[in-house]
Amino acid sequence: MTHLTIDHVSMDFPTPQGPFRALDGVNLKIERGEFVSLIGHSGCGKSTVLNIVAGLLQATRGGVVLDGKEIDTPGPDRGVVFQNHSLAPWLTAYQNVELAVRQVFKGRKTRAEMREWIMHNLRLVHIEHAMDKRPDELSGGMKQRVGIARALAMEPKVLLLDEPFGALDALTRAHLQDSLMEIHADLGNTVIMITHDVDEAVLLSDRIVMMTNGPAATVGHVLEVDLERPQDRVMLAESRLYNQYRQAVLRFLYEKQRKVEPLARRDGGTRAASAGRKAAGHA
Ligand SMILES: Nc1ncnc2c1ncn2[C@@H]1O[C@H](COP(=O)(O)OP(=O)(O)OP(=O)(O)O)[C@@H](O)[C@H]1O
């Protein structure tokens, strides 16, 4: 049985002008432990796919099956990390993770076991030194580390990452990518990650799912990335294979799916609706 199946998923959003078809017939099968990236131009529907897998949105047609069970609501078997952290601002890093751990393990772990588990997850992402700080006392990268610790602490079957490092500077981003590579090598979670960064996709993924431009976006091409992991990024830069993968993704994005859009329309229309929805979701 396939671990996770995205089966003929289509999504129509209601708009004042009538239904807007964001996705049309998205199919994808993901095996346990796979690291899959979704890449595609802005607005093609990556977050919509991820939100359907998270159970935050219901597909208009088709559906998602995880270990034989159809997904229709959010659940602790899917840990989500967004680009902008969604930590409770009044709680410390420790307490943010604790909140999730209590929800999932209440009645199954003793207080001492919960504490050990929270600390274990904070250590995994190298943030234990800041466990008593509140989000406003943490840098962007540190907040994302806490968000990842919180998601991992729920022991999800699938980790869903929506541009988790998108708002970070290049160096912080590289450190977090390294941490994620280590964690994935250690724990073998199934990961679906949205990224706009071709290097990040090639560095981290077993497969890169490239989406066509919307409306009615779908899977355009899937690239298998056969590189040893965890990877040393300095060595990789010189790898011929790595550069071939990079070029394949770049070619898809900038030749096959080249976006020709008048500047004035770039941020208009349905994108505004999307931005509003995202802002609300991240608050
Ligand atoms: N609630 C909504 N109502 C109407 N249209 C929506 C809604 N949510 C998303 N859309 C539209 O669906 C399409 C896909 O949006 P989505 O946010 O999934 O794209 P994306 O690939 O994640 O974009 P980005 O890379 O910019 O984050 C866009 O055209 C967007 O405007």
What structural class do you assign from the helix and strand content? alpha/beta
Largest sheet: 6 strands, mixed
Please state the average pLDDT score. Answer: 89
Q: Spell the H/E element sequence.
A: EEEHEEEHHHEHEHEEHHH
Q: Flag low-confidence runs.
A: 271-283
Placed side by side, the strands forming the largest sheet appear as 6-7-8-3-9-10
Rg measurement, Å? 19 Å
Q: What is the distance, rounded to the nearest whole angstrom, between the alpha carbons of the first and last residues?
A: 37 Å
In which range does the helix fraction lie?
25-40%
Shape: globular
Q: In DSSP terms, counting alpha (H) and pi (I) runs of 4 or more, how many helices?
A: 9
Strand content of the residues, in percent?
15-25%
- Would you report the number of β strands? 10
Biased composition (Low complexity): 270-283
Region (Disordered): 264-283
Pfam family, one: ABC_tran
Main location: membrane
Summarize the topology:
Blueprint (H helix, E strand, L loop, with lengths): L3 E10 L6 E11 L4 E5 L6 H9 L6 E6 L2 E2 L7 E4 L11 H13 L5 H14 L15 H14 L4 E5 L7 H18 L2 E5 L3 H7 L2 E5 L7 E6 L8 H4 L3 H17 L13 H13 L1
Parallel strand pairs: 3-8, 3-9, 6-7, 7-8
Antiparallel strand pairs: 1-2, 1-4, 4-5, 9-10
Helix pairs in contact: 2-3, 2-4, 3-4, 6-8
The protein binds adenosine-5'-triphosphate.
